[in-house]
Amino acid sequence: xxxxxLLHALxxxxxMLAAFVVATPANALxxxxxxxxxxxxxxxxxxxxxxxxxxxxxxxxxxxxxxxxSGLFAPINKSAFIEKVSDPSKMPRFEDWKVINxxxxxxxxxxxxxxxxxRAEFRLWDTxxxxxxxxxxxxxxxxxxxxxxxxxADAIYKQITGESGYFxxxxxxxxxxxxxxxxQRQLAIMDQDGFNVRMLTNTKDIVLTPxxxxxxxxxxxxxxxxxxxxxxxLQLETGQREVVGNFPGMTFSPRFSPDGxxxxxxxxxxxxxxxxxxxxxxxTTTRLTSTSAIDTSPSYSPDGxxxxxxxxxxxxxQLYVMGADGSGQTRISFGxxxxxxxxxxPRGDLIAFTKQSGGKFSIGVMKPDGSGxxxxxxxxxNEGPTWAPNGRVLMFFRQNAGAGGPQLYSIDLTGYNxxxxxxxxxxxxxxxxxxxx
Amino acid sequence: MSRTYTPAMSRMQTLAxxxxxxxxxxxxxxxxxxxxxxxxxxxxxxxxxxxxxxxxGSAQDFTVNVGDRIFxxxxxxxxxxxxxxxxxxQAQWLQRYPRYAITIEGHADERGTREYNLALGARRAAATxxxxxxxxxxxxxxxxxxxxxxxxxxxxxxxxxxSQNRRAVTVLGGATK
Lengths: 437, 177
Prior knowledge:
The complex is a heterodimer. By secondary structure, chain A is mainly β.
């Protein structure tokens, strides 16, 4: 587990990079336009970081895996490499890399500082322009070597695509084990690539729908603890838990406001479900919808001014948008079928949803005004999308007919590059963390 | 498939003098419509192992001779005619044995999204509670809880299982508060 002080240290290290960066002006020889859909992945050579042990190769392995899974990069097999890099701060022999069609080259070094910390540095080279694109260094505790690799992968992704990365992120989800009619559920957290899985709760109570706070330090979720289904708050660092609010019925479907000050959720009373917020500081609750329908799955726009939610007030479940104060509730989904679990993109431009139609469950996106609906994947059961912090990739859970349980998948906004995320047990309800700024 | 369950229930009424036979009939009917290896989770309450008659007023009596659950149509919270008969029997039994408080569990099948199904299960539990109240069961004896789609009894991936999972189960609790 990464401690706050360390997070801080990393942030500071990142912010002090400017001095080290020896960037040449981007001459746009190496770039990827990620809006182009099925873009041809960019051939990139990622050399083993120079180190006295296996760590150098491990770090470059994590970087290569991140970039490859993004679908935008094609790491070149190391056996094709001609130049054996021995000093990563020296200009490489670009001809040797051009001849194997490496458009970009990554070199690096990892060393142990006197105080025990790791120092990892890397350089990203544009082989055809014959110039360095960026170079950065990081200090961290040795056990966080994977995290440093993810940060470096993010830096490469950003340099080449012009978009923020999403590799230094985590996913909180529900780990499911046992037969379907006696399923046990635990909250779990892992790195976005499926490594470092850690259970956050035991198997005693049903737990559902975990969501990160904007600062990644807390998770709000629903638990059936004490046969009283309610929304909880969990501090990741301390493990401290508390009930959110003192409501007279089941509370469910929680999510944080973008400023982290409120939890928005549904309250069920006498068969009706309406949407409420609770201010975490003042503990005041505010009712936002007031219908005899099922209003649930609220999700804020990134600027906090609007809320998308699902409601069956018109018959089947449809998506509605309202102001943050509950004003102006307007239906936005009008296609065939039922729409649910809307999630506003961190970029603000799209809303992802689950759609049930023709006996299938699909994941799709539409604009906040309901136009431009696109289905990204469809099948027996796909549910519960969550956005990568750059708004380019979605994760969701899928259960195939006859499968024993659900699994996590990711897919690009373009509908390409669907990837299964391996977890130790069945998994559902993924929620992607924000990037640490 | 819940329709095969209902005749079994009514046949059970006519055969009430031989509970062991009834229990077996009911169990077979359930096994027939569920995936073979996936018995309802109350199968153990059906008296198969003991082979003994349910004591009137016992939890076993309620489950076997009255019927502890009703079923719903897809995405519906209406109490069907067959369910009304079951709830009428529940109401009579609960009035005869006032020592029980009850919890009504609302459930949904898996063909919906998680949050909606939690709300749908809550609606089903509330509709069941309201019906029992209208038949004279004091509201103070009744609690409701929704499990959404999280507690299926039948686990296959087709309608034969989904129809068994769309249910409200009346669970006898401790003493009336």
